[in-house]
Amino acid sequence: MTTSAQALLKKYDDIIKEEVNVKKIEELDDSIKIQKTFKPIGSQLSAKFGKDTGKIIQFWKQGNIKDVGDGKMIIFDNEGNERTLEPGEYEIAYEGLEWDNMAVDQNIIAKLDLELTPELQREGVAREISRFLNQMRKDANYNVDDKVLMLFNTTDENLASIVKEFKDFFKHEALISDLQSTDKPEGDIVALFTNNESTINFALKK
């Protein structure tokens, strides 16, 4: 990865993670072998180099090509003669992209790790609960800045632990002033959240 690309990823790290909904951004490790190749576009070379086009392509096939930066490539012969290719006069290709969930755009290669760890699964449920609570707020006609009390009841230990673990997240995302466990949640609005076969009974109250 180029220094400029690294700088951009570092600068916009939080924005990228939010927009793409990813947990972490890392550079590809060395176990993924990817070879970047350049292929001259014949029609562009013909217009620029005329009768020398065939020789240029021959030298390219021999591997006599180098990247000199700023989008420029140089093809050289065995005598040291050089011909410069500008962006648009060659194509970029990558060998070794047989991995799943990989994509390329210009000089950036991205691979998504789609493994759902237990941590990510719990966070996914927490985000579902947050969306559910915000829909409850909307259905209750609360003002956007109203902070409300959340009451809940569940017999599922996993869901109960998620509510406890992500308490601060719910307070921030759904403007919850406090969370309370109770045998019978009552309030301005009551609704049942379902995750697989497990449920939580929620109530919101000003």
What this model shows, in words?
It is built from 7 helices and 11 strands. It is an alpha+beta fold. The protein folds into 2 domains: 3-111, no CATH class; 118-205, hypothetical protein PF0899 fold (2-Layer Sandwich), CATH 3.30.2320. It has a 4-stranded mixed sheet with strand order 9-8-11-10, with helices on one face. It has a 3-stranded antiparallel sheet with strand order 2-3-4. The chain is rod-shaped, with a radius of gyration of 28 Å.
The largest β sheet comes out as: 4 strands, mixed
User: Which stretches of 5+ consecutive residues score pLDDT under 50?
Assistant: none
**Mean pLDDT over the full residue set:** 82
SS class: alpha+beta
How many helices in DSSP terms? Answer: 7
Helical percent range? 25-40%
Give the topology string: H per helix, E per strand: HHEHHEEEEEEHEHHEEE
Tell me the quaternary state. single chain
Q: Outline, from the CA principal axes?
A: rod-shaped
- The total of beta strands comes to 11
Strand content: 25-35%
Rg over C-alpha atoms, rounded to the nearest angstrom: 28 Å
Strand order of the largest sheet: 9-8-11-10
* Span between termini: 52 Å
The number of domains = 2
